[in-house]
TrEMBL record:
Name of protein: Piwi domain-containing protein
Short name of any one Pfam family annotated for the protein: Piwi
Origin species: Rhipicephalus microplus (Cattle tick)
GO molecular function terms listed in the Swiss-Prot or TrEMBL record: nucleic acid binding
InterPro entries per UniProt: Piwi, RNaseH-like_sf, RNaseH_sf
Occurrences of domain Piwi (ranges): 1-241
Length: 241
């Protein structure tokens, strides 16, 4: 039976001037290993599951692809279920999403004794040319998974595409000449966004040097009843986890 343990090198705690900082960090590590939670975000929604999906391509082993899925198990988003599955080489659009999501929903029921009423899915690694396929194929996999759990079970969903590798840059104008990086939390949902999409750019990080890169979010589908502003606020909160 595994036992939680913490290795501490004598040299690490031998420096008196750094002892306080070192002991605090060690205490945080022990807290995590014992199942504790270091921080959480306030999400004023009940019976909600947040799902993250991505695909990794291994170029060293015949371009074998691996699907990664995580799903929140509690209201504070501090407990997560994770699942990995192998895919056909080089295939970005996942074809085993239904099975992975079903396992996550079963685990959610075991933990909470209820099923989520709303599911927010953040899908990473999808280009503009694949959006239609995701909308018609992957989302249909998600919807088809619900009746497998219980007849009549039909939670509302929101599917958000996450695009990090973009060329768009956003600046704050300090005066007539100088520009600076915008503050974390800055959201742009007009002018530079697409007219036929519900999308927005979000700056969620602060950089000490250089130009900050925003993240592009595209809301492919939303039946949760949340407005675009609420989706944006939820997205920004989730970046702190």
């Amino acid at each position: 039976m595994p036992v939680p343990s913490q290795v501490i090198i004598s040299n690490t705690i031998g420096q008196q001037q750094k002892l306080r900082a070192v002991t605090q960090k060690i205490a945080l590590q022990i807290n995590c290993k014992l199942g504790g939670e270091l921080w959480a975000v306030n999400i004023p929604l009940q019976n909600v599951m947040v799902v993250g999906v991505d695909v990794y391509h291994d170029v060293t082993r015949g371009r074998q692809s691996v699907l990664g899925l995580v799903a929140s198990m509690n209201r504070n988003m501090t407990r997560w279920f994770s699942k990995c599955a192998f895919q056909d080489p080089g295939k970005e659009l996942v074809n085993c999403l239904k099975v992975a999501l079903l396992e996550a929903l079963v685990k959610y029921y075991e933990v909470n004794h209820c099923r989520p009423d709303r599911i927010f899915i953040f899908r990473d690694g999808v280009g503009d040319g694949q959006l239609k396929h995701v909308d018609e194929y992957e989302i249909e996999q998600v919807i088809s998974a619900f009746p497998c759990l219980s007849p009549g079970y039909n939670p509302s969903i929101a599917v958000v595409i996450v695009q990090k590798r973009i060329n768009t840059r956003i600046f704050t104008k300090l005066n007539t000449k100088d520009l600076d990086n915008p503050m974390p939390g800055t959201t742009v949902d007009h002018t530079v966004t697409r007219t036929n999409w519900c999308d927005f750019f979000l700056v969620s990080q602060k950089v000490r040097q250089g130009t900050v890169s925003p993240t592009h979010y595209i809301v492919l589908r939303n039946s949760t009843g949340l407005s675009p502003d609420h989706i944006q606020r939820l997205t920004y909160k989730l970046t702190h986890l």
